[in-house]
User: Fold this.
Amino acid sequence: MTLKMVTALVKGKNSSKVGQEVAREAKRKLATPPAFALLYTSTQYDLKELLKAIREELGNIPLIGCTTGGEITNQQIAKQSVALALFSQSDHFQFHVAMDIGLHDDPTGCIQRIVDQLPKQPENFPYRSAILLHDGLAGRGEEAVLSAATILGPEISFAGGSAGDDLAFKETFVFCNDKITKDSAAICIIDSKSPAAVSVQHGHKPLKCGFVATKAIENVLYEINGKPAWSVWKETVRESAKALGIDVDQLKDHSKIGSLLIRYELGLDTGSGYKIRAPLSKNEDDSLNFGCTILEGAKFCIMESPKQAQLDSAEEAAKKAIAQMKGREVAAALVFDCVCRAIILGDDFAKAITIIQKTIGKDVPLIGFETYGEICRIKGKGSGFHNTTTVIMLLPAE
Amino acid sequence: MDFDMSEKIKKEIIIQKIADIIGVEKAYAIFYKALQEGNLIEQAQYTKEEVLKITEMLKKNGGMIAISASLIAAEIHLNTI
Assistant:
């Protein structure tokens, strides 16, 4: 039996009813017993009620998921909704899930405890890949990915994302089977008979370079070149923002400052390109909060994010992924697209998803979410935690 | 797994893996500090045995650099570097 993925997306007021509906719709489309479920939801629902209703419909199949900044399926891109993907049982795939807490204080320990719960790779399934989801506000995206790469083994490719909370930036949740947790990560191991494809692409270019993080603690950047971080950011982007109709000196509201920061992100000069780091908000002391650790001494550029480049990067990510499939039939597309890209692109965000669908095949079932950080770890490539990128994982039919 | 510990790895490959989390300039600084602490001289390439010694020195930085050094060591042991 080849792999099949189906998706459903439902919105509503009653969490229990929405859970029941989304699970029933997906079950009806699949028409055979599912082997694995992937769940993405807005935080507006009673998560306990929602998950209980879904589990009652699906039974005890392996499930992971998280709260998001927006939900995506091949039929719809939505906010305040619940998206569910069901994967069929297949002779060519096995799915195993596990989760644990304590990500912030001990990211390596947290990932190790998760991996310890997972079975060894069976001999008759030569390829192993993974989906990694984690608390998007734990500030440990980079550490989680590096740890997962070390513990799972450097030859394993994986994709995933940081959970969101509808841009409230208060708390995000990760699901595994019946559990709903914060400060946690969940992994789905995918053992298969042919390899999955994973790809990543960003659409930023340097606005100005030569900056050094002279004071940074964990995910807070206090000083750049010895000056308060926000004052340097404001000065650097003033003219460019003016062209977009934004007066940086008039920005007082936190959400408007957040929107500006998302358009002008940090680009870490890796020598072979730029790794994007999204500043999420400004503190009273003019320091900036990031979605992951910023190391003191890092040299970087402040980047700009033209809309067209954001659309082009979606297409490039899809092209890279489909090239890895080498003509094999694609059963499922998993998309992890940064919530920042959705803000930059506005109404054109749907266009980016359409571009991905056209590139990978318009009939390929697709599920995704708007993340607070993206994960794309490819054998032999860098650390794998990204911001403001599109990450695509493709699973073959067999 | 059997592999040759005297097999050589280019310096840039190790630096690139650190540069991916700290930026290329700081990565060079951290790498040279690790060489000094490990009593190694600068070379265009290092044996796998020497790289493992460098990763031990890199781990002293703690945090992400330490995790990244563990990943480099894991890649050496799995022969994927």
Observations:
- The longest strand of chain A covers residues 205-217.
- Chain A has two domains: 5-201+310-396, 205-304.
- The interface with chain B takes residues 107-108, 142-143, 146-147, 149-150, 153-155, 268-272, 275, 293, 295, 297-300, 379-380, 382-383 of chain A (CB under 8 Å).
- The mean pLDDT of chain A is 95.
